[in-house]
Amino acid sequence: MKNNFVVIMAGGIGSRFWPVSKSLYPKQFLDLFGTGKSLIQSTYQRFSEIVPTENIFIITHESHLEILKEQLPLVSDNQILAEPIMRNTAPCITYACHKIKSINPEAVIVVSPSDHLILDEKNFEESIVKALNTATEEDRLITLGIRPSRPDTGYGYIQYLDGKAKEEFKKVKTFTEKPNLELAKTFIQSGDFLWNSGIFIWSANSIIKALGKYVYELNEIFSEGERYLNSDTEKQFIALAYQRCPNISIDFAVMEKADNVYVLPVTFGWSDLGTWGSLYDLADKDFSGNLSIPSKNVMFYDSKNCMVSVKEEKLVVLQGVDNLIIAESDNVLLIIPRDQEHNLKQILTDVKLKHGSKYL
Predict the structure, then answer these.
(1) Cβ-Cβ contacts under 8 Å for 9 (sequence gap 6 or more)
(2) Strand 141-146 relative to strand 261-266: parallel, antiparallel, unpaired?
(3) Contact 117/283 with Cβ under 8 angstroms?
(4) Would you say 273 and 27 are in contact if contact means Cβ atoms under 8 Å apart?
(5) Is the pTM of this model over 0.85?
(6) Cβ of 137: how many Cβ atoms within 10 Å?
(7) Angle, helix 39-48 to helix 121-137, in steps of 10 degrees
(8) CA dist., res. 115 & res. 199, Å (int)
(9) How many Å apart are CA 161 and CA 182, to the nearest integer?
(10) Which residues of the chain form beta strands (DSSP E)?
């Protein structure tokens, strides 16, 4: 197990969970289900059952370092990769994989978001171990693909080639960004599409070779700077290196181009918890379809299909309303129909134009 590593990406701001998730305290640090653990704490605990805890590295924005250390006090400073600016997933993955390779040239690495929900953790663990073993033995870039249960427009899709029936890992044919509903229905009917989980498994050598082939200039930044990684000068190097990095996703940079990409179809009760709607779908509701998280001090009268997220000490009374999201945080109260949640992006743009970052 000493060669197995995990990189947890915790750099996003979770804007689709605004106003509960804000730039200075984003959703990965929130206890959205009222379990007593934040999403990143749950993710860390999940992986601590699979690899040694000293082999778990976390990438986050430098403005979130204090929160991260407070929530995960056992993680050492060298296991935390602080990004000075946000540059999407390809730069942070390149940084992490070079850092880990300089520690262990034989490293095999899982890269995972910090804010996913996994219901069947035993199945998840078995899938990760299976992928780690395959990535150890073969030059493959592996991703986990979730068997879709519905034509969801909120996820990216992976199409695979059938190949040998006994081969668990399927060769990837295409990646597709979030489709419209009609296209999503076509994907489901075809039977050879999976939801893109955003979880990757590969050896350090395999991913760095691919980065060097498909995004040479990005890879060179960290190849040339490897001598600074895991040293007292790492922070200064990263501050300069990130200024040179393009804003590009790992999917676009490598996964959509490489010819050794494989997907493992899995079913372990997964959600990327990308929207209020995804949280509503997964949480337990009352007989009228109402949900309140984390506060239980919400009283519903002749109301149905509503979702309320307020602080525990606040009493909320709803009378005669239907299909609303009501969310509060500090100086912001949001009330929006559940079927109009897609308008949040424009709302946030308008808020920023009118008020700057005060409410974000």
Answers:
(1) 59, 89, 92, 93, 111, 112, 113, 114
(2) parallel
(3) no
(4) yes
(5) yes
(6) 10
(7) 60
(8) 12
(9) 22
(10) 4-10, 56-61, 80-83, 108-113, 117-118, 141-146, 157-160, 170-176, 193-203, 261-266, 270-271, 291-292, 298-301, 307-309, 316-319, 324-329, 332-337
Long-range Cβ contact pairs of 205-210 (< 8 A, separation 24 or more): 205/101, 205/105, 205/139, 206/135, 206/139, 206/140, 206/141, 206/260, 207/93, 207/97, 207/109, 207/141, 207/254, 208/97, 208/98, 208/101, 209/139, 210/141, 210/254, 210/258, 210/260
Residue 106, both tokens = 């034989």
Region label for 175, one of left (φ > 0), alpha (ψ between -120 and 50) or beta (otherwise):
beta
Q: What is the pLDDT of residue 243?
A: 96
Residue numbers in the chain where pLDDT is lower than 70: 163-166
Report pLDDT digits (tens) over 42-98.
999 999 999 999 999 999 999 999 999 999 999 999 999 999 999 999 999 999 999
Measured N-to-C along each axis, helices 89-103 and 204-214 cross at an angle, to the nearest 10 degrees, of 140
pLDDT of residue 330: 85
Following DSSP, what letter does each residue of 78-135 receive, concatenated? GGEEEESS---HHHHHHHHHHHHHHH-TT-EEEEEESS-EES-HHHHHHHHHHHHHHH
pLDDT computed for residue 155 by the predictor: 85
pLDDT score at 164: 63
Do residues 31 and 82 lie in contact, with contact meaning Cβ atoms separated by under 8 Å?
Answer: no
Q: Give the separation between CA 271 and CA 196, rounded to whole angstroms.
A: 11
How far is C-alpha 328 from the geometric centre of its chain's CA atoms? 23
pLDDT digit string (tens) for 180-206? 888 989 988 888 899 999 999 999 999
The set of residues, in sequence order, having a beta carbon less than 8 Å from that of 226 and lying 6+ positions away, is 98, 101, 102
Give me the phi and psi of 299, to 5 degrees please: -110, 125
The span from the CA of 41 to the CA of 33, in Å, is 13
Q: Which amino acid is located at 43 in the chain?
A: T
Tell me which DSSP letter residue 320 carries: S
